[in-house]
Amino acid sequence: MSAAAAPSGLFDCRDAYVRAVEELAVEDDRIVAVVNDSVGSSKLGKFRDRFPDRLVNVGIAEQNMVGVGAGLANGGKIPFVSGASCFLSARALEQIKADCAYSQANVKLCGISSGVAYGELGATHHSIEDVAWLRAIDRLTVIVPADPWETAQAIRAAAAHDGPVYVRISRMPVPELDRDHDAFRIGQAEQLRAGQDVAIIANGTLVHRALDAAHLLEAEGISARVINMATVSPIDTAMLAQAATTGAIVTAEEGLAHGGLGGAVAEYCATHSPVPMRMLGFPGFLPTGSAAWLMDRFGLNAQGIAAAARDLLAVKAR
Amino acid sequence: MRADHVRERANWMRRRLLAMIVEAGQGHPGGDLSATDILATLYFDILRFDPAQPQAPGRDRFVMSKGHCTGALYSALAGAGFFPEAELDTYLRPESRLNGHPNRTYLPGVETNTGPLGHGLPVAVGIAIAAQIDQADYRVFVLTGDGELQEGSMWEAAMLAGHRGLGQLTVIVDRNRLQQGARTEDTNALEPLADKWRAFGWDVAEVNGHDPVALLQRLDAACLPRSRPLCIIANTRKGKGVSFMEDQAGWHHGVPNAAQYAQALAELDAELVA
């Protein structure tokens, strides 16, 4: 199992992403990469050197980038369309909707440096709305991996999946998660820790913080379940139904507090298994600050998640 | 001979699409009729395809960037054998495969779902890049409205096609000089249009978009090996073939009443005899 073999320390998931795309490109000559002048920020320099004919740089033109991706799929290719997630998702939203999802084009959209990775650059460069926007689009798979292993697995699963997929790839350093399995399936959530008092549902960079929160809660005698909900659309409803039996759900994500993962969980639970919830995320346009500062400032850390869990347990006890 | 066949098919398409619009009670006859001769030349002469194998990897691709003109597109696809002609009578009905804008998941022969303007050319550029990577010999044709060229995404795609020298790619501009509400030149002027395409690295040709002889000549030339993408500016008239619709912005949308429909059919009969 990969987690046991993983070196200690922190990793940039972009490295796992480009490694997976390069490996796929060796195995399958249909794999191509499409970028918007983002060879460097997507870390695709090595891919370009190895497969110069299969790296399509459209320049700074996101609408065209996504349309070209759909055209490459029409021509039998499996394009990995990569750009900063703030521009890819917002600038090309109609192309993602019409050319990829509605047309069911086999395009893999890779939103790089997602969330608040570009901290001090401000709200123009934050990508905290992407999951809310994209999960609203029918027939578009949305995946938010948490660590290098899951990023590579998501890329491989996206390549094997016949249809459009959005994979959100962080540049924030994260550890490799400790797992007791080696299966990744689109639409299948992963329970990383058992617990009966409260369920913490997170994805991406927040999974690690959710696990830390569960440790804090354990010291207080609170048993917290931790679920990694990497696929936001389609969401794992069986896992949600089980989580609801704890009677308290906290969601946490590096994105808007409304409309993204938390929204997806709330929609399901409100209509199938009503349960008290707290939804952790960002409120909207954010003040100036580094990514790490912003995460702490808005309670997207172990302490913030644990506090939300305690708050919910008080509600549950009433 | 070839031109006579195209002319006959175009006349049939005009009757068919008017019948569809009258039956459905809505449609875009102005743009349909301006594009009819171009589509007839493509589907009934130039394009290489097998309607029994609409996904064949080596097929020529046609992308309808002006996706609202489904009267013309669907009559061409039915005439070319992609689906039964009788199905045209279901145009815009509930659950029909003939949606107001083309949907490839419903209908064979549609390459990508269009409707919002500015989408077709980027997708066609992507197809042509796939052909370039594979050194395949299929060709990619796009029909765009002229008003549609006000969309920035078209020029993003045009710039890339010029940069990459996509000789497999031909864009045909349906230059009827009218957009939904007014003349293009009064709204946001396109001229000098040929110079714009040349500046983006394209070869440019102009043609009478209602003359099958001229269209065949230009499109035959488009099929020859080239090192640059080709833009054919097809000078057309919106509503072509129906006198009271010609060059009238008001017929962008619209449905002829019974008397108007009878007159349109009579004019198309007369054209066939002539």
UniProtKB/TrEMBL annotation, chain A:
Keyword tags: Thiamine pyrophosphate
Domain Transketolase-like pyrimidine-binding: 11-176
Domain of life: Bacteria
Cofactor(s) required for function per UniProt: thiamine diphosphate
Coiled coil: none
Family: Belongs to the transketolase family.
The protein's name in its UniProt record: Transketolase-like pyrimidine-binding domain-containing protein
Record organism: Sphingobium yanoikuyae ATCC 51230
TrEMBL record, chain B:
Entry keyword annotation includes 4Fe-4S: no
Organism the protein comes from: Sphingobium yanoikuyae ATCC 51230
InterPro entries reported in the protein's UniProt record: THDP-binding, Transketolase_N
Family: Belongs to the transketolase family.
Listed SUPFAM superfamilies: Thiamin diphosphate-binding fold (THDP-binding) (SSF52518)
Source taxon at top rank: Bacteria
Record-linked Pfam families: Transketolase_N
Keywords: Thiamine pyrophosphate
Domain Transketolase N-terminal, chain residue ranges per copy: 16-258
The protein, known as: Transketolase N-terminal domain-containing protein
Cofactor(s) this protein cannot do without: thiamine diphosphate
